[in-house]
Amino acid sequence: MRRRRLRWRLRRLTGDMDEGTRHRDDPPPGLGVGIGWRPEIAGFVAGLPGLRFTEVIAESVHRDHPPSGLTALRDRGVRIVPHGVRLSLGGAEPVAAERVAHLAATAELLRAPLVSEHVAFVRADGMEAGHLLPVPRTRAALDALTDNIRRTCAELPVPLAVEPIAALFDWPDAEYDEADFLTELLERTDALLLLDIANVHANARNRGEDPLVLLDRLPLERVAYCHVAGGRQHEGLYHDTHTDPVPAEVLALVRELAARHRPPGFLLERDGRYPPAADLRAELDAIAGAAGLAVIT
Q1: Which of 25, 87, 146, 272 is the most buried (most CB within 10 A)?
Q2: What is the pLDDT, as a whole number, of residue 26?
Q3: pTM for the model
Q4: Partner residues linked to 55 by β-bridges
């Protein structure tokens, strides 16, 4: 039953809801390569006629006054994933009902196939951190995450994918490594996985570990889609900036992931210092090449 639900959720994302229309041995159509929608590059995104999916920060969408460029993409048939940044799923307190309601309403407004959020917390005891903070990899933290994800999913009209963050530090006294923590979380909640390849690279580099070890231990069949982004080294740590070009090491990980289990789609994240359109196109083409996918026409 669980595998059947998982297949339905991934088919909902790709739009492959009628399996009878294709041969059973044909690969699912997937989503290809997308780019995150931001107001600063809305014109560029709108000018990609072959774009099949995009992502928008859920908290930036006003239910009564959504950006016209975003609704135009929706009406064009582009799949839009609302990506939450402020639910604080990893917090000790229950998720705020109004925040979950906004995420659900945004999904309905944009006819989203799913929504996504982070394995992180952003507030504690009423104080806002202003950043995505890593959760301790302990049983208590896993219990809190499980409860909050279940509460959230109960109010959502679509499936939820959760994203492990890039962390500049790990809390002490961990009871799980990252692979075991994420695997148990997905098993407990039946959520999907938003796998950020840049975060895999950042965490492995900062911990002095091999990123392929994590890839080989994650349940890759649960991946809904992937993020790809750039970063830079600063004061001995690699920062997931979203303002720098995607490095060769991250593209190499995209190739490794595609060789193991190709997810439905790869999405380029850019959040500032936007380069010229030609450079953005080159990054999308590079991701497509690494993943063995067709470029956006």
Answers
A1: 87
A2: 34
A3: 0.91
A4: 36, 81
